[in-house]
Structures are given as C-alpha cells and as structure tokens.
Amino acid sequence: MVAVAQVAEHLTVDQDVVGSSPISHPDVSAPAPTSPGRGISSRGDTMTRILCIEDEPEMIELIRLILARGGYEVLGAESGPDALELLATNPNVDLILLDLMMPEMDGWEVYQRLKANEQTRDIPVIIVTAKAQRIDRVLGLYIVGVDDYITKPFSPKMLLESVQNILEKKAQGDQDGGQDNEKGGEPAGHTRASAETPPNP
After folding, report:
1. What pTM did the predictor assign?
2. N or C of the chain: less Cβ packing under 10 Å?
C-alpha cells in the first residue's frame, strides 16, 4: 500500500507527462495518439492492449489512469491464475506488466508459464515490483530476460517511457521478422537482456 501512495503522489506533480492538467483528472475525450508504439496495436486493428497483473486493485487503477493518457487500453488481473485464464480466452494482448510478489502464484511462475505457452510467449513483459535490490534487477534483466524492470514507487513518466520503448522495439522486431521471412530466413530473436552488456559481478 505504501508503493501505491508514493506513486499516487506523482500523479499531480509530473506535469511533463500529462501536459497542463494533472493526470489525476484525465481528459477522456482527447484523441489517442497514433505515433509508433503508442495508441495503435501491433496487430494494426485496435488500440494497444496492456495487461496489468497486480494483486493490489488500487495499483491497477493507478496504472490504468497513467497509461490511459498515452492512449493505451489496460486490462487488469489480480492474480496469476486470473491472468492466465484471461489470456487463454483472449490472448490478443500487446504487453504485460507483471508484479512479482503475489499470493497463490508469484510473478516468476507466471512469467515461466507465459513463455511456455505458444500463444503468449512472444508478448513482451515489464516487471513492475517493489523488489528493488540490485540482484533482483540482474536476475530479471540478464538471467530471466524480461523486457524491462521497474521498481515501485515509480513516476508516471518512467512507466510511460518504458511502455513506449518496449512496444516500439516489438513493432520493429515484428517488421524485421516479416522481412526475414519474405527473404526465406529465420527472424532474429531479440530481448533487452541480449541487447545490453551484463554488469560486472
């Protein structure tokens, strides 16, 4: 609950993210942006859909509020099993925001199941967690290979930039993969972990 309160503090002061009005009072009538990686799904047919897997409903609502200003549609699941059930019937998700510390099924188990499923293995995953120790970030980014790792509390700007960057990388990867397939080659895999140099031990 402390992380929720700390994130909420940023909602009325992070003006560079939301323009002239506080993000706590979004203009729902404003048109969604259509720049690459924002607002338009990688499927090319609907608004970009993001699934937030988080056991605190208040945090899901805060994230939904923040990302709505970027033109994103946010679905919420309050547990790992709920998320997996949702994805089994509706796998058309462009990005997943995943908490690690959840009862019943923790985030790492959820991640493993996502990557073991052919329908969900290619969906990029951003970890959003209160586990802020360096070893946790190293595990996530360089060993497990998640697409990004955000620690709570975070600013709206940080979340929006991470989401946009990962979606742009995914769109570029999809485009490159399509070109490789047209040439008869195999698409080159790419993850953030492979693109960065691991820190020295």
Report:
1. 0.70
2. C
